[in-house]
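Quick bug: S-adenosyl-L-methionine-dependent methyltransferase output formatted oddly.
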Amino acid sequence: MDDGLDPLARTALWTASMRAREHARSDRLFDEPLANLLATEDGPKIMRGFEGEVQRGVEDPALAVRTRFFDDAMIDAARSGVRQFVLVAAGMDTRGYRLAWPESTVLFELDRPALLELKASLLADAAATPACTIRPLGVDLLGDWTTPLAAAGFRHSEPTLWLVEGLFYFLSAHERDTLLKEITTLSATASRLLADYVTQTSLDGTGMQVWREKMAASGHPWKSGCDDPEGLLDAQGWRARVSAYGSPEADYGRWAHAVIEPGVTATRGRYLISAVLDGSAV
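Here's what came back:
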């Protein structure tokens, strides 16, 4: 399929395919009826390739757990009065269509122009109806994305929920820190940040060697991790709660693996972050 997407952008098709598979389960953790469409014919191929060569057919529950965890956190924020949401590296995400949003909610979707154009075309063909105001912005997240965001109506003075899902490990530590600083600069006190990450210790361990080699060979290497996300965010004024997959708040009956603590060598040390900006270091 000639969709004009670069290798990293094509990981969005893979994610959509995994969400489509979850939607098809009778015990699904979320509904995402548009995921199969947005995966295109290539998404399942990418998914099967990685599972066959790296995970040996094992269905990793992390994507399903992560999606549900962030769904719940975003709706909780909306119920608390947040009306401005920014999806950083939105990919084929359909939360703007499938979640129950309060009136006046605005959701900004940031990602590569070609990916958002493909997404818009597929959704138009399906006559999909958004559940809130969605403003897609084709930007370079390593360049100037803050100017287009402001021009699209982003309100600096009000609390925002930022979702950075499936992105940090594709960035170098410097790129990650720069992005965090830009997000913090744009955030009013009481803004929220949701993200996922992998520990550097796990990333450097032998258990992830095959995975990293496969990702690099496919053109989208995992570049960095973090063993102290609380410290990283605290320095910028964010109070972070880190949830391990398999912990009570990030399980949903799916996680059978032992909880992995930061700094301990393991196969996949992955965590979910929920943070609130108190402004103390801003």
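Actually, after a second look the formatting is fine. Strands lie at 84-88, 106-111, 133-138, 160-164, 192-198, 238-244, 270-277. Closing.
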